[in-house]
């Protein structure tokens, strides 16, 4: 354990993130080609203090609130989707570390700028063994695995009744897992969201928790129960962590479109400047309004998580469902905004060195994430508003 430190104010962290944008854009094509993050991008995140933002102060962290994280991720999203995606994923299993006993947290946070990747899919099995469990299985779409120190894994294990099986969350060092280099995708290529495999991996009991307790934010560390950032359910926290990068991606696409505007004409028309065409004015205005809507929904989720964390008030079912809907509608609006700008960027935007095509691919990839699919999330919210029980535990 380290001495508590004074966290930089929100404005300072956002400024540092904004200063990283040129670095992220410079390496974006390399990351797309190599299917991993560039070392300079990782170093930039570490230097700005990003990996401390959602760490308790007693371990040298900043204990940043959701609004600060949202605004920082929005800046990173302006720079590059893959970096921002991984940056938005790491704090979620990182938050789950806070559910484990104090000695486990001490072990994890003993590594400077520690990164924890993870999943919510119980695609493995576990058997009991004196002192812990033995895990076998594989997990796909593990964003950030190539640059992480630990993975939070989910496995089906024998329940306390000795008859049934139930999902458990376990913390495993990356050195205990195999990595399958299978991330060759259409979008978010630089995120390196590979598959990881456990073959007879032993996990000591202190690094194993029942998944239902984790989903509800029931920490086994008494010191964390009083910290605002741990006083919300997992999915509420995850939703607040995801929205910033999505809104930032849409804003970054708009900025890049406007940067190219004066140098472009509209082929086979009399418009020597695309910026003079009324159709362009409508396209830019519509895209800008969609970006504004993305930012509204992102801020609403972050403010709700922060308010609940400070007050300790329980979440209502409609509030839980609405945060999922907020994520879904940001994905939808962000995709619509970037598609509009991408289609207005002309044939030259097909070239890989024109960033708008990568922003379009990245937002489409984000729309396919199981917890972000707009139709699924909107259906869930509508279902709850209509008085029906949710059809998922991920709420």
Average residue pLDDT: 96
Q: Name the shape in a single word.
A: globular
Number of strands: 8
**Low confidence ranges:** none
What count of structural domains? 3
Give me the side-by-side strand order of the main sheet. Answer: 1-4-5-8
SSE string, helices as H and strands as E: HHHHHHEEEEEEEEHHHHHH
First-residue to last-residue Cα separation: 33 Å
Beta-strand content bin: 5-15%
CATH class descriptor name of the largest domain: Mainly Alpha
Give structural notes.
- It is a single chain.
- This protein is an alpha+beta fold and 395 residues long.
- It folds into 3 domains: 99 residues, Butyryl-Coa Dehydrogenase, subunit A, domain 1 (Orthogonal Bundle), CATH 1.10.540.10; 95 residues, Butyryl-CoA Dehydrogenase, subunit A, domain 2 (Beta Barrel); 155 residues, Butyryl-CoA Dehydrogenase, subunit A, domain 3.
- The protein contains 12 helices and 8 strands.
- The strands form 2 sheets. Strands 1-4-5-8 form a 4-stranded mixed β-sheet. The chain has a 4-stranded antiparallel β-sheet with strand order 2-3-7-6, with no helix packed on it.
- The longest helix has 34 residues.
- It is globular.
- The relative contact order is 0.12.
- The mean pLDDT is 96.
Distinctive features:
single chain, 395 residues, alpha+beta, Butyryl-Coa Dehydrogenase, subunit A, domain 1, Butyryl-CoA Dehydrogenase, subunit A, domain 2, Butyryl-CoA Dehydrogenase, subunit A, domain 3, 4-stranded mixed beta sheet, 12 helices, 48% helix
